[in-house]
User: Fold this.
Amino acid sequence: MCIMEKKKLTYKDAITEIEEILDKLENEDLDVDELAVKVKRVSQLLRFCKEKLTGTEKEIQGIIEDMGN
Assistant:
């Protein structure tokens, strides 16, 4: 049920999936067999979000620099 398999992952989709997993963790709705898989998935999603934010920041900086020229 990986979002990346269905369509290209967006930042919003990643955040939503992270929130869903965290909610399950907080409510103790994950059994021990799922725990490692979900923690790994959150790690992947966090990495994706960090890369997306860094890329967006660089893109915005470039636009601002172009406006100054």
